[in-house]
Amino acid sequence: MVNFDKEKVEKTLREYLDPSVNLILQIGNYILDGGGKRVRPYLVLKFSKALRGYNEEKDYILSAALEYLHTASLLHDDVVDGSEKRRGKPTVNRVFGNDTTVLVGDYMYANALYLFSIYGDIDMIKNVSDSVKKMAEGQLLELKKIADFETSFDDYYKIVLGKTAVLFGSCCYVGTALASSDQNLKDMAYNYGLNIGIAFQIVDDILDYEGKEEKVGKSLMNDLKEGKITYPLLVIKEELKDEDKSFIKSVILDKNPPMENLLKAKKIVEDYQGVEKAKEHARDYVRKAIENLKDFPDNKDKEDLINLAYYIVKRDI
Amino acid sequence: MVNFDKEKVEKTLREYLDPSVNLILQIGNYILDGGGKRVRPYLVLKFSKALRGYNEEKDYILSAALEYLHTASLLHDDVVDGSEKRRGKPTVNRVFGNDTTVLVGDYMYANALYLFSIYGDIDMIKNVSDSVKKMAEGQLLELKKIADFETSFDDYYKIVLGKTAVLFGSCCYVGTALASSDQNLKDMAYNYGLNIGIAFQIVDDILDYEGKEEKVGKSLMNDLKEGKITYPLLVIKEELKDEDKSFIKSVILDKNPPMENLLKAKKIVEDYQGVEKAKEHARDYVRKAIENLKDFPDNKDKEDLINLAYYIVKRDI
Fold it and tell me: Are the C-beta atoms of B12 and B48 separated by less than 8 Å?
């Protein structure tokens, strides 16, 4: 994340939270202080600067609004998953309770849309609220598809769009819309965001198969352990011989599969080149993302966006 | 609720839920089928008809959007409160789990804003998203003020605005904005909504003190039992003699006060005329609400809105 005024982003994030109830400020600061790379604000600011040449105050405000949407979804996620820790700190739900966490998430969603009603326009709100719908839809589908071997590519995409890609897309859309009314550019920016989002998620899936535990920051083979079919398995699922298929099905259905079985499943996926194919597909999405930028002017900011796309598939894969 | 095409409201509510994930439709229908008076759509439709003379399709769509916001807040409320039943049916969180309930609520919030981005305008979105912020703020404050004898009028209003009044206000604002661009009318409509909302909540508080259990549909003195200071107590709190004050404080701090103590507290509040004064104040809010309608044309729909305001304080008090 280069050539990016992260300090101003952090300042804006705290300035526009603006609740009348102190508890929200306290929890808001707790989660904002937890850190994060601020990829979403980065995307907004890069696209608007790529087109306008500089960033205006409202770019920062709407980049904060999009980070609030992300934060709201993390808060609700932690309630949904019953998570204990995030970025090494106890989650908000552990410290303040599920009730408070749900409501602070609601506040952040509403505050984001409120900021869009003041500093944005109706077209941005349409794009952003559509993304929030898809985020909820994707997470619901993910819950429903747990331990379901019949998970399809279509299901996977809906899940991944909701998890990461649509909000990335909205950040790019909003960044572009802040500096241009060209619908083609806005759509291309949105597609760039979707494509890097999908690539990002596939890489995440790969890292769960064969990352280095100390770098990934959590134990491996978590997805399969939780009964989730992710890209490396999805991409070779139809090729599996009956006995391999039965074995993997049994692992997915097992609520607490022993590590031995997880490692055997991993070996099967690797034998069918699942991880290799997943890497290849992630690179395809990165290529598509870069193609989406072709109508944007060539400058330093576009270069940073191209490098961001490359960086996604370079994360230790 | 008279002169009101409730059937068309019900049809619209089901038509515009429109999720790509079937589970949302299933849960959406479960909660919509639970019924409800649809006060919020009623307010939207009455205001737009009072000004335009008839209702357009988009009035119905945005009245559904506002009912989705209400539904989303009920879903999240049930998670926050850990409720078991609503309108005699097991709550969504009991049947489908807290995780799903939170996400379906998120979907409904987002869908409502999405519909506003298509059928409404930026000014409506500003008003509505501000209300959603205040709803979350009010509920958080209510959680925080439990067992706090120092709850002030200011706290009470923030809580009540969030619980009922701001969404009523937004319904009236949107209904007016659908048929008029007169800012004064929009503001007056919003104030009418706030005033009937506050009156409604004060009446609710009174019913918890002295309603008929079979009519209220739940046991009495629930608020005090849960440590909540509501209007009949709030309005006489500063007049309490030391021994009465200490007794009521002890009841509020007691996590499970015996009925005997609740009844003694009720008697004290009644002796200080708390319930009488609350009734009087509720009537004041209804009077203010009716005054807010003075610039609206005199017709059948305005009459219905006046009667609705009167009806609120007539509910068995």
Answer: no
Residues 7-26 of A with CB under 8 A from B: 19-21, 23-24
pTM score of the predicted model: 0.94
Picking from A120, A150, A167, the residue at the C-terminal end of a domain is A120
Question: Using H for helix, E for strand and C for coil, what is the string for chain A?
Answer: CCCCCHHHHHHHHHHCCCCCCHHHHHHHHHHHHCCCCCHHHHHHHHHHHHHHCCCCHHHHHHHHHHHHHHHHHHHHHHHHHCCCEECCEECHHHHHCHHHHHHHHHHHHHHHHHHHHHHCCHHHHHHHHHHHHHHHHHHHHHHHCCCCCCCCHHHHHHHHHHHHHHHHHHHHHHHHHHHCCCHHHHHHHHHHHHHHHHHHHHHHHHHHHHCCHHHHCCCCCHHHHCCCCCHHHHCCHHHCCHHHHHHHHHHHHCCCCCHHHHHHHHHHHHHCCHHHHHHHHHHHHHHHHHHCCCCCCCCHHHHHHHHHHHHHHHCCC
- Measured between beta carbons, the chain B residues lying within 8 angstroms of A122 are 117, 121-122, 125
Q: What pLDDT is stored for residue B22 in this prediction?
A: 87
In this predicted model, what pLDDT tens digit does every residue of A244-284 receive, in sequence order? 999 999 999 999 999 999 999 999 999 999 999 999 999 99
What's the pLDDT band for A11 if we cut at 50, 70, 90?
Answer: very high
Nearest residue, CB atoms, B103 vs list A80, A106, A123: A80
Residue B215, pLDDT score: 63
What pLDDT score does A147 carry? 93
Chosen domain end from A72, A92, A120: A120
Q: Are residues B106 and B239 part of one domain?
A: no
- Does A118 lie at the interface with B, CB-CB under 8 angstroms? yes
Cβ atoms within 10 Å, residue A120: 23
- Which domain does A32 fall in, by range? 1-120
**What are the two backbone dihedrals, phi and then psi, of residue A268, each rounded to the nearest 5 degrees?**
-60, -50
Residues of chain B contacting residue A21, judged by C-beta atoms under 8 Å apart: 137, 140-141, 144, 158
**C-alpha count within 13 angstroms, C-beta hemisphere, residue B265:** 32
Give the CATH number, domain containing residue B114. Answer: 1.10.600.10
Same domain, A157 and A234: yes
| Segment (H or E) for B262 | helix B259-271
Please identify among residues 55-84 of chain B the ones whose CB lies closer than 8 Å to any CB of chain A.
73, 76, 79-81
pLDDT at A79 over 90: no
How many independent structural domains does chain B possess? 2
pLDDT tens-digit map of B143-194: 999 999 999 999 999 999 999 999 999 999 999 999 999 999 999 999 999 9
| B:91-110 residues touching chain A, CB 8 A cutoff | 98-100, 102-104, 106-107, 109-110
Chain A residues with CB inside 8 Å of B133's CB?
19, 107, 110-111, 114
User: ipTM higher than 0.85?
Assistant: yes
Q: Is A155 found in the same domain as A129?
A: yes
Q: Are residues A18 and A116 in the same domain?
A: yes
Check whether residue B161 and residue B288 sit in a common domain. Answer: yes
State pLDDT tens for residues A120-173: 999 999 999 999 999 999 999 999 999 999 999 999 999 999 999 999 999 999
pLDDT tens for each residue of A44-77: 999 999 999 999 999 999 999 999 999 999 999 8
